[in-house]
Amino acid sequence: MIKIDTDLIDKVSKKAKNSARKRMNLNFHDKPEALMQRMLNAMEPETYIQPHKHENPDKSEAFFCLRGKILVVEFEEDGRVRDHILLDASKGNFGCEINPRTYHCIISMESGSVAYEVKDGPYDPTVDKHFATWAPAEGDSEASAYLKNLLENLGF
């Protein structure tokens, strides 16, 4: 049995805070070939995850907020926002599911935020994510401004 408790969430959250990328995954699946990928995804507000989609092979993905606040944004093919939800258990917004072939990103809105993430497997880093060309890449000098603009346009 894998127990997801405060101690485990604290440990992975601390690792995220101390990492250069300001996020950290803790995988529960035992190998990349697993057909269901399950993990904790701890992230800090300073992290940037480039909008991406999972296609060829198509994969669904679900996020459940265990602690903090996490904004999930879906995009049209041209980069316009299609939908969004602020995951916040205290407000009754516990999770969401992203369909295959849908551009999306997740944004930490509060320090110590941790999501439980489930995604179809297997995991192959060469084809797992198709990054949006209309958004800056992680590490790009424009990433911070893009994220700030996205949040402002969504009223955050």
Principal-axis shape = globular
- Across the major sheet, the strand order is 1-2-9-4-7
Q: Percent range for helical residues?
A: 10-25%
Class from helix and strand fractions? alpha+beta
Average pLDDT level: 96
**CA distance, first residue to last residue:** 38 Å
Task: State the CATH topology.
Answer: Jelly Rolls
- How many strands appear in the DSSP assignment? 10
Give a quick rundown of the structure.
With 156 residues, this protein is α+β, with helices and mostly antiparallel strands.
Give a description of the structure:
The protein is α+β, with helices and mostly antiparallel strands and 156 residues long. It has one domain: Jelly Rolls (Sandwich), CATH 2.60.120.10. It is 15% helix and 35% strand. The chain has 2 helices and 10 strands, in the order H-E-E-E-E-E-E-E-E-E-E-H. The protein has helices at 6-18, 143-153; strands at residues 23-27, 36-43, 52-53, 61-67, 70-75, 81-87, 95-98, 103-108, 113-120, 130-131. Strands 1-2-9-4-7 form a 5-stranded antiparallel beta sheet. A hairpin with a 5-residue loop joins strand 5 (70-75) and strand 6 (81-87). The longest helix is centred in the first third of the chain and has 13 residues, at 6-18. It is globular, with a radius of gyration of 15 Å.
Key features?
156 residues; Jelly Rolls; five-stranded antiparallel β-sheet; three-stranded antiparallel β-sheet; globular
Topology summary:
Blueprint lengths: L5 H13 L4 E5 L8 E8 L8 E2 L7 E7 L2 E6 L5 E7 L7 E4 L4 E6 L4 E8 L9 E2 L11 H11 L3
Antiparallel strand pairs: 1-2, 2-9, 3-10, 4-7, 4-9, 5-6, 5-8
